């Protein structure tokens, strides 16, 4: 073994095979915690260190920015370890502080910095900063390389403005969030506003089509793209311009994708174009020089609501492969050992996921000891659930000195569930962070300052311009702004900036307003002139003073104003850090980074805090102690999924993701009654509880878990379900709307709705005085009268 491959010893033989496989397509499919991400990370290091691949030729796609950062750090260390051996003949830990600093700086400059590792969005934004000016939109819209990225809240504001102002409609009927969702869906199915309109059978649909058309036009007028465009535009650009595609195809010889099961069609098209240069795979003959390496787990596919499609993972070998019928191993590697969780935790996870029908069976063996048994807690209500969990956290932290607060995670289905936990954690002064709360970049003052920077970088960004032209107050009130906007419209939708800088237009304004407008445009122009020569951090620092923004906050003088001031200071720190860490340090690059920062990025790793997050946010992460809470029908699995077996399977995958985040200890809990979204309702236990293996679980209700089945019972049920012809329905499943029933806890009621079929059936039952409950007849004692 040469010095440069020492680190391969930290992998098992299958991982090692995946890492050492040099060119061609390779798919790694494996269960949770089997070291897929580790294999991907080590593969990048190995490409550079062993095969001497230029880091510029590598493109790695991660699911979050945070994962990208962690991967870069890990690779940096792998590089450093090898270089320490090669240059100094000693391990990294034996280097003097000076040598270490020197080595790290050299490695960063020559290697790590040139790797393109990031999310689809971040990588696409980077490609577009080179090439967007070559893109031909069918309607003739143009973008320049200083385009703004509108994040979800910007996009929704734009939709709202179109609904309420341009179309004069009620935004309660046309809720901006759901209209934006419909538009996003249409875009991701590659439907133009015209295509979309043709598919609409009713008034509402046609209105949405109209909003979509205006929205797209408005984005273009603002020289802006939304998150969907960030991926769609490169795909269209690559399809229409051979030279552009050829350049990136040549550049990215080695492409790696983590969490491939959550890739959607557009993202897949992008990868495929980059790999094949748009050629058909049977005519493509460049595999000697390139690779495409994807890792994933179909059982962890949890983003179908964002059009992710795990059949893309299943089709990988046919899509890219010169697959031989009898030899899968050239294009596929399976990892079968789990390094993350104790055997008990793994057993529970494996058992649960076997209830899904849409899956490929796979092996996942524990490599760690049996561990503690899983504890399942039934609480009276959500407050008791939070009390119990916080008591566990306090106990464990007290009894196990090696555990820190940051070793605990509470995972829930919906954000609204965090409140009860926050209250109890606060009461005991336990530090915590809610991942997925208000993003740093969504705070008002941060949006204001970023809007200034965006106007400086992109004069056409009228949305940002309107946000700050009168912040702090410059006498440019609402009516002045309307007047200016009308003028812009009359001139055929020119950017507001052009009107503001047009002397004749400004002269028509009242004295005070005109003065304000001139002061504002002068300010922006000063910095725009410095865009090429000054760093973003310098521009920001001067701007904060010159704009009067900081002054206004100081004058306000309230606690809140000082907090905002602190956040603005933090933004300055963020830009400094960005300039230190990145190859591309322009203000444009920083602004893209800020628009794409996800809520997960605000996780403070240095902080020693309990993490609270949704199950979706927990993907790819791991914690020594995990609390999986709120396992109740209608909550988890959630209400909407009860009617749809495929959606229930996705909820089950989400549960599998949650369980497999745990390394040492897992607690599962549910409440008998819950106040959620205002009303207090009795709750019934999640159907997933009955699917867990009893012999690995301890409960606070003895074996009295409602209708919990022992393993043999479960087997019988599975066999019955498998034998039952679809629709024939065994006697116990034969329910009808209107049936009168008696439930052991809620008393008598009437069946009002039936969800699902066969063994997935759930009933909506109206209980006089209690309201409607969703009941799984297999889990409750239910008698038909
Ligand atoms: P997920 O499906 O949840 O994304 P994964 O398959 O990507 O999981 P990793 O996160 O790469 O798994 O690895 C899980 C844990 O196991 C990590 O702590 C990792 O460091 C450790 N691990 C992976 N491979 C090995 C190995 N060969 N030896 C020891 N530990 C390993
Ligand atoms: Mg992973």
Automatic annotation (TrEMBL):
Its cellular-component GO annotations read: cytosol; DNA helicase complex
Q: Output one GO BP term.
A: DNA replication
**Reactions that this protein is recorded to catalyse:** ATP + H2O = ADP + phosphate + H(+); Couples ATP hydrolysis with the unwinding of duplex DNA by translocating in the 3'-5' direction
Q: What Pfam families does the annotation carry?
A: PcrA_UvrD_tudor (PF21196), UvrD-helicase (PF00580), UvrD_C (PF13361)
**Which Gene Ontology molecular function entries are recorded, alphabetically?**
3'-5' DNA helicase activity; ATP binding; ATP hydrolysis activity; DNA binding
Q: Which residues form the UvrD-like helicase C-terminal domain?
A: 343-620
Q: Which stretches make up the UvrD-like helicase ATP-binding domain?
A: 9-342
The protein's superkingdom reads Bacteria
What UniProt keywords apply to this chain's record, in alphabetical order? Answer: ATP-binding, DNA-binding, Helicase, Hydrolase, Isomerase, Nucleotide-binding
Please give the family membership noted in the entry. Answer: Belongs to the helicase family. UvrD subfamily.
What protein name does the entry list? Answer: ATP-dependent DNA helicase
From which lineage does this chain's organism come?
Answer: Bacteria, Bacillati, Cyanobacteriota, Cyanophyceae, Nodosilineales
């Amino acid at each position: 073994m040469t010095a440069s491959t020492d680190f391969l010893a930290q992998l098992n033989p299958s991982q090692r095979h995946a890492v050492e496989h040099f060119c061609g397509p390779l798919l790694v499919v494996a269960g949770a915690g089997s070291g897929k991400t580790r294999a991907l990370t080590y593969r990048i290091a190995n490409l550079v260190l062993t095969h001497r691949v230029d880091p510029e030729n590598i493109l790695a796609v991660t699911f979050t920015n945070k994962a990208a950062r962690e991967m870069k750090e890990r690779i940096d260390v792998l590089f450093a370890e090898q270089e320490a051996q090669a240059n100094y003949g000693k391990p990294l830990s034996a280097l003097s502080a000076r040598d270490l600093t020197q080595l790290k700086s050299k490695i960063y400059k020559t290697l790590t910095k040139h790797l393109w590792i990031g999310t689809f969005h971040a990588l696409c934004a980077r490609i577009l900063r080179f090439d967007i000016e070559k893109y031909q939109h069918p309607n003739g819209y143009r973008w320049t390389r200083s385009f703004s990225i509108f994040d979800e809240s910007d996009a929704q504001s734009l939709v709202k403005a179109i609904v309420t102002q341009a179309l004069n409609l009620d935004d309660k009927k046309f809720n901006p969030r759901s209209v934006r969702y419909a538009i996003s869906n249409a875009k991701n199915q590659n439907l133009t506003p015209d295509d979309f309109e043709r598919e609409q059978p009713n008034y509402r649909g046609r209105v949405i089509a109209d909003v979509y058309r205006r929205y797209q036009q408005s984005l273009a007028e603002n020289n802006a793209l939304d998150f969907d465009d960030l991926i769609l535009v490169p795909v269209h650009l690559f399809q229409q311009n051979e030279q552009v595609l050829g350049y990136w195809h040549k550049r990215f010889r080695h492409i790696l994708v983590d969490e491939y099961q959550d890739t959607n069609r557009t993202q897949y098209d992008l990868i495929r174009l980059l790999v094949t240069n748009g050629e058909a795979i049977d005519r493509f003959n460049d595999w000697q020089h390139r690779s495409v390496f994807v890792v994933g787990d179909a059982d962890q596919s949890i983003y179908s609501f964002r059009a992710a499609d795990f059949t893309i993972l299943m089709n990988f070998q046919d899509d890219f492969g010169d697959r031989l019928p009898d030899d899968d191993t050239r294009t596929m590697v399976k990892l079968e050992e789990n390094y993350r969780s104790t055997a008990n935790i793994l057993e529970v996870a494996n058992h649960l996921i076997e209830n899904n029908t849409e899956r490929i069976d796979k092996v996942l063996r524990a490599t760690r000891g049996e561990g503690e048994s899983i504890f399942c807690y039934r609480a009276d209500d959500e407050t008791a659930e939070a009390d119990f969990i916080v008591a566990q956290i306090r106990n464990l932290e007290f009894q196990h000195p090696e555990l820190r607060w940051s070793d605990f995670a509470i995972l829930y289905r919906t954000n609204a569930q965090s409140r009860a936990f926050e209250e109890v954690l606060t009461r005991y002064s336990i530090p915590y962070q809610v991942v997925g709360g208000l993003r740093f970049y969504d705070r008002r003052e941060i949006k204001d300052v970023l809007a200034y920077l965006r106007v400086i970088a992109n004069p056409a960004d009228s949305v940002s311009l309107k946000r700050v032209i009168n912040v702090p107050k410059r006498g440019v009130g609402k009516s002045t702004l309307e007047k200016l906007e009308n003028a812009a419209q009359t001139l055929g939708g020119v950017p507001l900036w052009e009107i503001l800088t047009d002397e004749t237009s400004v002269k028509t304004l009242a004295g005070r307003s005109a003065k304000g407008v001139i002061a504002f445009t002068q300010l922006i122009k000063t910095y725009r002139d410095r865009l090429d020569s000054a760093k973003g951090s310098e521009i920001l620092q001067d701007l904060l003073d010159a704009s009067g923004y900081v002054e206004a906050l100081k004058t306000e003088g309230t606690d809140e104003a000082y907090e905002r001031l602190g956040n603005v200071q933090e933004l300055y720190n963020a830009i400094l850090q960005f300039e230190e860490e990145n190859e591309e340090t322009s203000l444009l690059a920083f602004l893209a980074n800020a628009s794409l920062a996800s809520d997960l990025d605000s996780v403070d790793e240095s902080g020693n805090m309990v993490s609270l997050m949704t199950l979706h946010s927990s993907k790819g992460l791991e914690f020594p102690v995990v609390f999986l809470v709120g396992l109740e029908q209608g909550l988890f699995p959630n209400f909407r999924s009860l009617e749809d077996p495929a959606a229930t399977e996705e909820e089950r995958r989400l549960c599998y993701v949650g369980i497999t985040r745990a390394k040492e200890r897992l607690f599962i809990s549910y409440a008998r009654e819950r106040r959620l979204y205002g009303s207090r309702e009795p709750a019934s236990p999640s159907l997933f509880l009955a699917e867990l293996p009893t012999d690995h679980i301890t409960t606070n209700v003895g074996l009295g878990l409602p209708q919990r089945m022992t393993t043999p019972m479960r087997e019988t049920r599975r066999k019955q379900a498998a034998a039952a012809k679809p629709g024939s329905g065994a006697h116990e499943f034969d329910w009808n709307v209107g049936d009168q029933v008696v439930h052991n806890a809620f008393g008598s009621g009437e069946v009002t709705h039936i969800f699902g079929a066969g063994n997935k059936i759930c009933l909506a039952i109206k209980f006089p005085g209690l309201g409607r409950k969703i009941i799984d007849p297999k889990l409750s004692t239910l008698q038909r009268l």
